[in-house]
């Protein structure tokens, strides 16, 4: 085959690859979301560990209660944050501190530990918040050859207007996510490092969050989030109110 003919065929195949129907990409995003939101109602036992220079420097244990798409409650267990709770309802979040009678409004970008934010734990749904476009690019993440999608936020309420999502198409699982500010500067990178099977579903077991701005970017700091146990549960809707959450 002549070089020119090969170049033409290669260009045609890349163009076809980049023009994947939007519906197919939406389904792929939904599959990615399902690895982190596998059950409509569940209690998840988790740990966040801050790692600096390869050494763990701090950790926080917590349970995450989820109900439907927009209700969540994070309850810290032990340590300096023991008893604190973070309540999510739709796009709104509150911090509940023991001894305080008033919930404190917070944003999804406020820190859980190190580079990990409450939004990383409580809410991250690409299929609802972003529109996807194929790039035709590939990304090597560990031993996985992943497809790269360009995501654009559907609403200004989303923390990051632009995202680059690398996906393992065969497994239909996320490989890596890169979050960008409106200025175009990359702010955060999340790598999905472990998965496991539970109740016939593939779910995230571990991911690593790197903050790429400020002092954390130069110190080699990362935050490892481990989802140690998923338990299906029937939860009382009252616990997803400030009054009900205090009694949990």
Descriptive overview:
The model is unreliable at 1-20 (pLDDT under 50). Helices cover 19% and strands 49% of the residues. The strands form 2 sheets. The chain has a 13-stranded antiparallel β-sheet. Strands 7-8 form a two-stranded antiparallel ribbon. It is built from 6 helices and 15 strands. It is globular. The chain has a single domain, classed as Lipoprotein localisation LolA/LolB/LppX (outer membrane lipoprotein receptor (LolB), chain A, Clam).
Beta-strand share of residues: over 45%
What is CATH's topology name? outer membrane lipoprotein receptor (LolB), chain A
Order of helices and strands, N to C? Answer: HHEEEEEEEEHHEEEEEEHEH
Number of structural domains: 1
Summarize the main sheet.
13 strands, antiparallel
Mean pLDDT figure: 84
| Helical segment count | 6
CATH class, anyone?
Answer: Mainly Beta
Low-confidence stretches: 1-20
Helix amount, in percent? 10-25%
Radius of gyration: 20 Å
Kindly state the number of beta strands: 15
Q: What is the CATH architecture descriptor?
A: Clam
So, the CATH homologous superfamily?
Answer: Lipoprotein localisation LolA/LolB/LppX
Task: Name the overall outline.
Answer: globular
- Order of strands across the widest beta sheet? 6-5-4-3-2-1-15-14-13-12-11-10-9
Cα(first) to Cα(last) distance is 70 Å
Find the structural class using helix and strand composition: alpha+beta
